[in-house]
Design a protein that fits this description.
The complex is a heterodimer of chains A (111) and B (114). Chain A has no helices and 12 strands. Chain A is mainly β and 111 residues long. In chain A, strands 2, 5, 6, 10, 11 and 12 form a 6-stranded mixed sheet that branches. In chain A, strands 3-9-8-7 form a 4-stranded antiparallel sheet, with no helix packed on it. In chain A, strands 1-4 form a two-stranded antiparallel ribbon. Classes of the chains: A mainly beta (111), B mainly beta (114).
């Protein structure tokens, strides 16, 4: 069935380090792909999205490229900040009018 | 107000209580959702309302009862809950037109069942 697999956390990095959070999906057709972020005590916020193969979504220094051949949508940032500490969720649209989410990856950035 | 607003933010209830969670969206969307977020588990989709009609119910126990009186309001009625129902309950909304159904979330209600 449809599913999203994310790397398990927590991911702990020092400030200004390079970040990669892996995400792969299993879905029929050509879903739209999303990364959401959840800051402590908050709901989820859309971080970026890509709607077709080879599209690159970007926002706040984060990037992810829709790779159809590897069914992946890895999140990257060149230099993380303490304020990036949060839980990151990969998700896709199954066409059932509701998103399917991964289990989330907690990022902890230390000064 | 804009966006998706959930009330209350925190709720503690006994197993014999009856309570309701409220969600309101000011985005003009035509679909609303309830998700359950438990520690170390993926987000679980509970209910979907599209155009005020319930279109999905993912085998949620009957002690959870949703209500969608109009396209802007969504409720989750709770009764005789169990301690394992303690979680963050998230409401979301979206505009259902194409596959690109970006969802907007509320801040959630942190529910503790004692």
């Amino acid at each position: 069935g449809n599913s999203v697999t994310q790397m398990e956390g927590p991911v702990t990095l020092s400030e200004e380090a390079f970040l990669t959070i892996n995400c792969t999906y299993t879905a029929t057709g050509y879903p739209s792909l999303f990364w959401y972020v959840q800051y402590p005590g908050e709901g989820l916020q859309l971080l970026l999205k890509a709607t077709k193969a080879d599209d690159k979504g970007s926002n706040k220094g984060f990037e992810a490229t829709y790779r159809k051949e590897t069914t992946s949508f890895h999140l990257e940032k060149g230099s993380v900040q303490v304020s990036d500490s949060a839980v990151y969720f990969c998700a896709f649209d199954t066409g059932r009018r509701a998103l399917t989410f991964g289990s989330g990856t907690r990022l902890q950035v230390q000064p | 107000e804009t966006g998706v607003t959930q009330t209350p933010r925190h709720l503690v209830m006994g197993m014999t209580n009856k309570k309701s969670l409220k969600c309101e969206q000011h985005l003009g969307h035509n679909a609303m959702y309830w998700y359950k977020q438990s520690a170390k588990k993926p987000l679980e989709l509970m209910f979907v309302y599209s155009l005020e009609e319930r279109v999905e119910n993912n085998s949620v126990p009957s002690r959870f009862s949703p209500e969608c009186p109009n396209s802007s309001h969504l409720f989750l009625h709770l009764h005789t809950l169990q301690p394992e129902d303690s979680a963050l309950y998230l409401c979301a909304s979206s505009q259902v037109r194409t596959l690109n159904t970006e969802a907007f979330f509320g801040q959630g209600t942190r529910l503790t069942v004692v």
